[in-house]
Amino acid sequence: MSSQQEMSLVTANPPVNVDQIFAEVDMSAGDSSTTVRATVVQASTVFYDTPATLDKAERLLAEAADLGSQLVVFPEAFIGGYPRGSSFELAIGARTAKGRDDFRKYHASAIDVPGPEVERLAEMARKYKVFLVMGVIEREGYTLYCTVLFFDPQGQFLGKHRKLMPTALERCIWGFGDGSTIPVFDTPIGKIGAAICWENRMPSLRTAMYAKGIEIYCAPTADARETWQASMTHIALEGGCFVLSANQFCRRKDYPPPPEYLFSGSEESLTPDSVVCAGGSSIISPLGIVLAGPNYEGEALISADLDLGDIARAKFDFDVVGHYSRPEVFSLNIREHPRKAVSFTSKVTKDEPVKNEHF
Q: How far apart are CA 132 and CA 294, in angstroms?
């Protein structure tokens, strides 16, 4: 789809004057009633074409900035692509030449972090003066990770979150994140973090993010089912935080045609216009109120004004790691150090300290 011609707009409030939106908000005075304009992007990757996907991301980011958005969240695996329907021709104890080549092409579409694509995304955030949360497929050597990258309006790369638990066949394609990439960033518009798709169902992960004070909880996903909305509403209520869920809207024609790319088990029933991911992106308040979405109609920018005062209002009722916790009964230990398969201890002279390198 052409994002310029066919992109629809869904907002909870009328468009605002961009000149009246501050790129940064000073919250040091304790004013919890600040309003932040946020947008979740519902759009499809240009599959197997990362440069074209980056171009599309910039067009969408420009449109969101024109709405006065200060925070823009993209879907899971937007850069690099979500390999929906693909089996990579895997079976227990067997692989095929085509399946291996499918992985080769998918690996080529992924990005290095850091790398030139990360630099371009940082420049986009700087150019449009937004906080940017972007779903990517990260390449580290020959292992891929489903990752979220964070950028500030000055064009600084803040860090990343790697998906801890890929779902089902994703585990054969993506590596597993560890506790070293579960960040919550304290920014002038609130404390921002992310969990990806079904790892949002992991109570321990959510609790770790609540304990870090998350206020704007980003949930890039590939789940377009209506039941997903129940999870998003529950997280907003449980965490007393805003939840911004971004999913792709894809038709069969957004993926390469057969036989290059096959939707396993359903290819014969699909037409080019068949919807293979219906979106459902939404924004939900800490009080469980749906501020925008869910949208199942097509590619869209889904925007809302977040009244940060709602966080305190919600926490008055329920503070999951505060006055509603029972630390004398329940406790949770988070191991945040990187888990590496191989460590090297450098050879040293008697006057030099031991140097450890992890890869």
A: 21
Give the pair of three-digit tokens for residue 248.
Answer: 């792709």
For residue 153, is pLDDT > 80? yes
3-state secondary structure of 61: helix
Q: Are 83 and 104 in contact (CB under 8 A)?
A: no
Hey, is 22 helix, strand or coil?
A: coil
Strands (E), 164-224: 184-187, 190-194, 216-221
Cis ω on the peptide bond leading into residue 258 (within 30° of 0)?
no
Check if the beta carbon of residue 217 is closer than 8 Å to that of residue 40: no
**For residues 286 and 284, what is the distance between their CA atoms, to the nearest angstrom?**
7
* Beta bridge partners of residue 11, listed in sequence order: 303
Give the chain's end-to-end CA distance (angstroms, integer). Answer: 41
Residue type, position 100, single letter: R
332 within 8 A of 204, measured Cβ to Cβ: yes
Environment class of 187 (CB within 10 Å of its CB; exposed 0-12, middle 13-18, buried 19+)? buried
Crossing angle for the helix pair 50-66 and 116-128, to the nearest 10 degrees: 10
Question: Domain 35-316, what fold?
Answer: Nitrilase/N-carbamoyl-D-aminoacid amidohydrolase (3.60.110)
Instruction: Report which of 233, 168, 167, 242 is spatially closest to residue 209, judged by C-alpha positions.
Output: 242
The structure tokens listed for 91 are: 């079976």
Q: pLDDT band for 346, please (50, 70, 90 cuts).
A: confident
Residue that is written with structure tokens 């605002």 in the block: 16
- The whole-model pTM stands at 0.87
Instruction: Say if CB 290 and CB 114 are below 8 A apart.
Output: no
Catalytically active residues, by annotation:
76
